[in-house]
User: Fold this.
Amino acid sequence: MKYADIIVDISHEDLDRTYQYLIPEELKERALLGVQVLVPFGKGNRQIKGYIIGLSDLPKWKEEAIKPITAIAEDTLMIESQLISLAGWMKDNFGSTMNEALKTVLPVKKTVKQKENRVIKAALSGEELQAVLEGEKKKNNKGRVRLLEELLKNPSLDYEWVKNTLNISLSTMKDLEKLGIIHREASVLYRNPVKQPSTVAKSVVLSPSQQEIADDFLKEYHEGIRKTYLLHGVTGSGKTEVYIKIIEEMIKEGKQVIVLIPEISLTYQTVMRFYQKFGDRVSIMNSKLSQGEKYDQYVRAKNGDIDIMIGPRSALFTPFQDLGLIIMDEEHEGSYKSENPPKYHARETAIERARLCGASVILGSATPSLESYKKALEGEYTLYRLSEREGERKMPVIWTVDLREELKARNKSIFSRKLQTLMEERLKRKEQIMLFINRRGYAGFVSCRSCGLVLKCPHCDISLTSHNNGKLVCHYCGYEEEFPDKCPSCGSKYIASFGTGTQKVEEMAKKEFPHARILRMDMDTTKKKGGHEEILSAFANGQADILVGTQMIVKGHDFPRVTLVGILAADLSLYAADFRASERTFQLLTQASGRAGRAELSGEVVIQTYQPEHHSIVYAGKGDYEEFYKREMLYRKLMSYPPASHIMAVLVVSKEEEKGSKASELLTKALKQWEEKEELMEYHVIGPAPARLSKANDIFRFCFYIKEDDYQRLMAAKDFLDGFYRFSDEFQGIAVQFDFDPMNSY
Ligand SMILES: Nc1ncnc2c1ncn2[C@@H]1O[C@H](COP(=O)(O)OP(=O)(O)OP(=O)(O)O)[C@@H](O)[C@H]1O
Ligand SMILES: [Zn+2]
Ligand SMILES: [Zn+2]
Assistant:
């Protein structure tokens, strides 16, 4: 490349403000994305430092006017360099602009005013102060007297308190300072988002299988091996204890560690386990922190004041200078994929960051994503297993109940007879119950209450969605049919779109068990700040017998008195219009089951379903991840869905329906023509069709999908489509977004 785009001020909001420089011949090999360079700047050609954030062969100005880069800066291992090259990689692999990627990796740019801790201190000894006090009393200087009296009790006072509560003016303080009686001091007070725990960590001796994993990892690390590990450990097998052990060793060796966990499980309970062990060498990052708090965590990380950062996706960009390990817990979680450009997956990005700075990665889950498990089986990742809970703690017994049988037996309650009996037992024994209603993506799928049939698209094997115009629509390919008045399979009239809410479950539970104390956790009850924590800690403290909730309650919680988990309608997420629906259902059921019997008391689980023969439910019931994986991979291979293949979603949004629809057709046609002209292999295009969310905020959404084995070919298609739409007049007022291997359908 001949030219480099250089950004001279990364603290600036507008990262688009770049300057083009010529790369001198002798620097060609070293002038890479992210590298820090010295360049002449401004009229006086003053030498300043900047970062390379783009490379090209085309000059943006008259060539004579482009100044050359002076040198590569000595200190080129700067953390910013690493993060900028990471941004370049994200741009190339997830199809965003460099600016979007930079904003993600360098999120806190403006210096936020730092909080200061100001104090007033006595500059004299107690005796001397006493003497001054007597003098001021005689002069009747009331303010000075008040302050001196307090200083005699306590030689260091909080400035704000002195000013506001003691009511001493600034000028009085200044006068006393001039006289050498007091002095004022300020120190930067870093906001620490977590209050220190009062309790200490319970001491855990790792079981032999846990210890073996920790030892193996550390042995490889010491041998200089850097790679990705997948820790597949059943729920409650002690994955977190293994992480803690490994982190302890890494820190002893001066390394820093990032622990990624899904925002939803970033609960007090989880964070405390780390705090109890590592004290204030840990910090957290989450969306609830103020801008100032976030800024402080970045500064603390960069200065080496902390060793461990815990947080969701964004914590991945913590500017640690000496990162040794990235742990990604619950690696299967969909929330690790960003929904806004750059639509990056934190797993792939973590692996790339680790590669850039010589760190290793541990992915952990009881229900690994098919993506990761496939790579582990193929040897790309090292697979560690914890297949049992050890000692007293046993995996729960799982009962699968066929809801069609309940209907036949005239049980119209939402609680099956089995669940009802077990609940009564638990309430008598004063043990706790969790009732889980799986609501994700339930809206709109249509099923028969007599035979359990779910209406699907004949071309896509994806459930149809009912629309208020009385039609059933496939959101993958646009196929439509009339809403039937009876079940096409058994003829029953009980065919309807499905949906039950947590509120209803709570009501029913109250009716059936009037003496039980019930808590409900869902979007409504956790809206206010701290709502989550309040409910969870009330439940942990035994202030309720039953906790009712959505998927929110399944994540990572460890309640020793929970011995029964009821999953009320396991099918609800099975028929989301999404190729990942089965995987997600299996994960939810397994994770929810995993909340039962985590301590000495043994646990039971009841899975209620209309589809007991569905593989997600069968294998979740047996706790058999391997068989589920095999079965689901067959389907992905057959349909060419990830991870058997790759898929790119192209979303076209427009204020005008007509225009948006036309634009999405234009794009698919252009792709075809391009293929023919360039004699490329044919792309496999599905759609275009109106998106599942076909209109949002008065904006119409259309989408199509391209399936392709070769990821690079998908990138090429993206580059073509991107260029095509940016330079065509028909696309005025239309935006096009790309999503690679999407987590949700559009
Ligand atoms: N070796 C051990 N000795 C004593 N207690 C242990 C041991 N290992 C794990 N535990 C305890 O068992 C419980 C479950 O362990 P932990 O939360 O680490 O499991 P996990 O695999 O991370 O669970 P999940 O994936 O379900 O969230 C915790 O209370 C933990 O302290
Ligand atoms: Zn039927
Ligand atoms: Zn279809």
Observations:
- Residues 3-105 form a domain with the GIY-YIG endonuclease fold (CATH 3.40.1440.60).
- The chain has five domains: 3-105, 116-188, 208-386, 397-443+499-637, 646-740.
